[in-house]
Amino acid sequence: MNTATGYRWLVVPDDPAAEPSRELVGGKAWSLWRMRSLGLRVPPAFVVTTEACAAYFAVGALPDGLAAELEAGIRLLEAELGRTFGGAERPLLVSVRSGAAISMPGMMDTILNLGCNDIVEAALAAESGDPAFAAEVHRRFTGSYGRLVMGCTEELDDLPDTAAVLAAVAADDAGTVPSDPWAQLRAAVAAVFASSRSRRAIAYRKHYGIPDDLGTAVTVQAMVFGNLDDDSGTGVLFTRNPVDGTREPYGEYLPRGQGEDVVSGRVTPQPLTHLAGWNAAVHAELLAAAERLDTEGRDAQDIEFTVQHGELFLLQSRPAKRTARAAVRIAVALVDEGAITPADAVRRVTAEQVRALLRPEIAPGAADRAELLAHGVAASPGVATGLAVGTPEDAQHTPGAILVRRSTSPDDVQGMIAAAAVVTEQGGATSHAAVVSRALDTPCVVGCGAGTVDALLGRTVTVDATAGRVYTGEIATTAVDESEDDDLRRLCAWAEQQGAVTVAEPGAAAPEPVFDADKIPPEELREGPPDIPAGTRTVRGALFTTPDGVRAALDAGVEVIVAAHRLPVLLTAVAHREGTS
Predict the structure, then answer these.
(1) pLDDT tier at 526 (50, 70, 90 boundaries)?
(2) What are residue 402's DSSP bridge partners?
(3) Tell me: the pLDDT tens digits for 428-459?
(4) Name one Pfam family in it (predicted).
(5) Residue 236 forms beta bridges with which residues?
(6) Distance between CA 437 and CA 434 in Å, rounded?
(7) How far apart are CA 320 and CA 299, in angstroms?
(8) Distance, CA of 112 to CA of 221 (rounded, Å)
(9) Domains defined for the chain, CATH in brackets
(10) Strands (DSSP E) found in 19-127
């Protein structure tokens, strides 16, 4: 029994003084509580807990009592808003959104506009005075429900109306979209639970070392409509630039759109300055809220918002996925701002991120005479050369491939993990391709325009995702110098203060005895790091710059590791000592 609410499976996160458990309600619902407790405008919601998800997988169905609690939760939303779920007047529609305790952007399902049927469409048309808006809401819901809940494999997003969507779902033998809103709700909650064990979610958790039994909470939230009229829209705002970490708002806005339009990459939104030009007051309110969330969270935030008829609503705030460069810059800046300590900064940057930052970049002048094949938005920096392929499966079976798509979806994640770079025809800097690539630290260029896929497929190309360009052939690169980057130098000094190990540059004096892994035949290292002789004080060799090698050296009591790049070794050592590696 959830004693805070009186429900077994539900939490209603509306008491500013009662912080809900993130493990119980998931990060998304926790952020709603946080924003509401700060006095920010958030559509009301309730949460089906992760315990209900675990029970769902245990019994293979919604657990006993959940259906009744879903109805009770809806009644609370109805009472707060003066609307009726499935009503012929002032109808209530809801979104059904996933939300694990650990953020996994785009990996699980969300169904918007739930509760729509013919009666509700007529009621929306009467209330808004816009039958086209009501029909669009109905069409969107039917397509989303048919694909995500019923498993329809047909392309539904571009069909002209609800009748066409229903016909496509039926033709695919997926069944019939229910008109009963309560049946819709129960099935949608089950579908979101099930999506936590989809192939894409499993691949994402495996890549990031997230427990596979994490499950998800489900947030049921009253809809606000960015597609209502010309005074409405939707967008995504990062409080700091997620590409380079600069302290400035970074985001996009889509007039007359819903949130799924922005993240899907099917539509290229406007820069955030468009919102400032359209409604300066809403833009100022958004930036003030963003600043407060950044300060309260002591970290860069990724904020989803909707404007409905000129009124701003915040839908989510979470720590922003960022590139390696941004992670370093933000961590150092937060120390300078007094938000975190140097020790905190060291914990917030991983060795993998620093290794990614030290990857090669296009050498000065090397691209001057190369043939430019495509250019777009630089969504995640870096350089990669490889064969351009068009499917996630090809990327998985072609080492070093460049994945080229019209736009990416959660079903492409395994291919994105395998690819050396990602290029898309459509989408902006907050699209699925951009956000996931930044999380993976994979070079990514989005919004290159129609025809890009045909122009690149089957060719060896070089993706300069720092500049947003794609060239034919292989282009010379150069590497970043760790010692010439002020942020990296400062992080290195702070990491050294943690005292996990000393890292010496090649050629520097080091205490004897020294164990050199480079002198061991490669075939003897296939099973991992070798046994380090007792009493060894210093180790050197490429093996001991890898995570496994650093951990082996520390476990053997080694005092000094010799490495050309010091910071990745220091960060690995700190994480290992603290038990987080």
Answers:
(1) low
(2) 388, 421
(3) 888 889 888 887 879 999 999 999 999 999 99
(4) PEP-utilizers
(5) 252, 304
(6) 5
(7) 8
(8) 9
(9) 1-223 (3.30.1490.20), 225-322 (3.30.470.20), 360-479 (3.50.30.10), 498-577 (no CATH)
(10) 45-48, 84-85, 91-92, 94-99, 110-114
